[in-house]
Design a protein that fits this description.
The complex is a heterodimer of chains A (336) and B (252). Chain A has 336 residues and is an alpha/beta fold. Chain A has ten helices and 14 strands. Chain A folds into two domains: 239 residues, 3-Layer(aba) Sandwich (Rossmann fold); 80 residues, 2-Layer Sandwich (Alpha-Beta Plaits). In chain A, the strands form three sheets. Chain A has a six-stranded mixed sheet with strand order 6-7-8-4-9-10, with helices on both faces. Chain A has a four-stranded mixed sheet with strand order 1-3-2-5. In chain A, strands 12-13-11-14 form a four-stranded antiparallel sheet, with helices on one face. Classes of the chains: A alpha/beta (336), B mainly alpha (252).
Chain lengths: 336, 252
């Protein structure tokens, strides 16, 4: 990971190096290398920039690609899988361009985000066709094996059109396992799964990662990422805004400036007391509340009750207004 | 869940084109086979049977019978049914985003296109040819019209399906563009003169009919060989372009 803060904005051209010990690439440094190597990639649709100058490399293990909806995760995945050509620079999987090199496509699997499947096929047929199109021998046996990995072996003969969203997700994951991929790219694979299946799939991803495969999973849900693994790439507004360890991302969420709404019977007196004690950087008064900006949410938390008692005011609400992923993304983008 | 183990050996190998073709044919044939679509298109095709029967009952002349087969069977039934199946063969996969399952695979893309076109032809041929040939028989004007209808029908199905498969690969609104081709280009602009008509498949199927029957029909003056060969060449070119396009386009 990087030499600076463990969870840091990428240096150079939005560069990050996940799942490896090398330092982040500098602007003029040699291209990054890895099982997945993304070197200064951009994608434009007319005047719209979907992905801008993103550089990172990933090797074996599980890495989470975290970003809000519309951040560019899907475009990045599509470029990695050769579904779309980068407008600038290159993406390499296992050292090859998946759009041009036919053979490397057999060593990679994608679980696409879209729900579409061949609904008229049974689960076994669907996964078996995936195996056949991957050049796998014994496709029917492999299909049953793959369905077993996702707990769908007992409903393999049912048509996938009759499946729930969670089951369809698992069928997609099964079809991605048939070729024993060295690189597995999963676009929001946990959507629609119940907690038990979510936990089991995450365990499956970890086993695959522990086996040396490169598993890249996208998500826009922080809680999912916390379970997916420690390595995180954060993308926002088409840029790689940070990369590093998940725990550092969590710390960042705690350490960054916070905005808190305090419901009270006397907002003006409470606000004055908080300013006098130097606990807030800024505030907004309302009829029954005061919204404060602070760098130290813990200090406010400790001081609030004694102040309320001292002033004789009643506290009716303490609500963090930005304790979500969107605000972390916003913060990361703004500080770059 | 069981522990992850390698599937049986044989992975990471390119898939032979023949196998790709067979898989895409099978999957797309089943994808195209919707009961509503088949019933609606069969009803459309049956209109030609009713018209042929009515003409036969009225002791129609040869020219009237050939005009009916050319204007209903070869100008409406075969092109429209070929558009629905040929366009949807790849177009539906692209629209519903299942094309991705034929994409990140160690295989060539051209057999996917051939398999798709063959699947569309498998459905288009019986739905169109049986009623149109039956209509030709029911007109009761001799065997020449039946022979001409069989040859022109087979050529028409192959050519129209191939062209509309290309439409499905290339164009998002393939049905609109296909109808524009059938109704505006072939039905209107190409009727204006022999120059434009040369770029309409309809002229070639009409020419085959006229060659076999000796009927008097406008814009149908090609020989049998030209009437057969040119549409088949167009079909091959359309499929080659479709394969190239599929291999280079962006996939959702």
């Amino acid at each position: 990971m990087s030499d600076g803060p463990a969870f840091a904005p990428p240096s150079g051209p939005a560069a990050g190096q996940a799942a490896g010990s090398a330092a982040p690439a500098e602007a003029d440094a040699a291209p990054v290398t890895g099982m997945i190597a993304v070197n200064g990639v951009s994608k434009y649709y007319g005047s719209v920039v979907a992905v801008s100058d993103v550089t990172f490399a990933i090797n074996g293990g599980v890495t989470a690609l975290l970003g809000p909806n519309g951040a560019g995760k899907r475009t990045l995945f599509r470029m990695m899988c050769g579904l779309t050509e980068p407008s600038r620079a290159t993406v390499h999987l296992l050292g090859s361009d998946p759009r041009r090199d036919r053979d490397v496509r057999g060593r990679v699997s994608l679980v696409p985000q879209q729900d579409a499947l061949f609904d008229h096929l049974s689960a076994v047929e669907f996964v078996s066709i995936a195996a056949r199109t991957q050049g796998v021998e014994g496709p029917d046996d492999v299909a049953r094996w793959a369905l077993e990995q996702v707990d769908l072996d007992d409903v393999g003969e049912k048509k996938v059109g009759e499946f729930s969203k969670g089951m369809r997700q698992r069928v997609k994951v099964a079809s991605a396992l048939v070729n024993d991929p060295e690189v597995l790219i999963l676009d929001e694979p946990l959507t629609g799964l119940d907690p038990v299946q979510r936990r089991r799939l995450i365990a499956l991803f970890h086993r695959l990662g522990d086996d040396g495969r490169c598993v890249l999973v996208s998500s826009h849900v922080l809680d999912e990422v916390s379970r997916l693994g420690s390595r995180v790439l954060v993308i926002a507004q088409g840029r790689l805004v940070a990369s590093g360890d998940y725990r550092d991302l969590r710390d960042l969420m705690d350490d960054r400036p916070h905005r808190i709404r305090l419901g009270t019977s006397d907002p003006r007196r409470l606000a004055t007391a908080l300013v006098d004690r130097g606990l807030v950087g800024g505030l907004t008064l309302d009829v029954a509340s005061v919204t404060v900006d602070t760098d130290d949410a813990d200090a406010i938390g400790r001081a609030l009750a004694p102040i309320a008692v001292e002033l004789g005011v009643r506290l009716t609400e303490i609500s963090p207004l930005d304790d979500d992923l969107e605000s972390v993304f916003r913060y990361l983008v703004e500080r770059r | 869940m069981s522990t992850v183990e390698r599937p049986p050996a044989g992975t990471h190998r390119s898939v032979p084109p023949g196998r790709v073709l067979a898989i895409s044919y099978r999957v797309i044939l089943r994808q195209l086979t919707s009961r509503g679509r088949i019933i609606a298109l069969t009803l459309l095709a049956m209109v030609s049977v009713v018209a042929g029967f009515a003409l036969g009952q009225a002791d129609a002349e040869l020219d009237d019978a050939v005009r009916l087969i050319a204007s209903l069977g070869f100008a409406v039934v075969i092109p429209v049914v070929a558009l629905v199946f040929g366009g949807a063969a790849i177009g539906d996969l692209r629209d519903d985003k299942t094309l991705v399952y034929f994409w990140l695979r160690p295989m060539d893309r051209w057999p996917v296109v051939i398999g798709a076109a063959l699947a569309a032809m498998t459905l288009t041929a019986p739905i169109t040819l049986i009623p149109v040939i039956l209509a030709a028989v029911l007109t009761g004007v001799g065997s020449g019209i039946v022979t001409g209808t069989v040859i022109a029908g087979v050529v028409g199905v192959i050519a129209y399906v191939s062209v509309f498969t290309l439409f499905g690969v290339w164009l998002k609104r393939f049905i609109v563009w296909g109808l524009a081709y059938i109704l505006i280009w072939e039905g209107f602009i190409a009727q204006a003169g022999p120059g434009a008509a040369r770029f309409a498949l309809r002229k070639y199927t009409r020419s085959i009919l006229v060659d076999r029957t000796g009927a008097d029909l406008d814009l149908a003056d090609f020989s049998l060989a030209v009437g057969v060969i040119v549409p088949l060449v167009v079909a091959v070119v359309a499929l080659v372009v479709a394969a190239w396009r599929l291999g280079n386009q962006e996939i959702d």
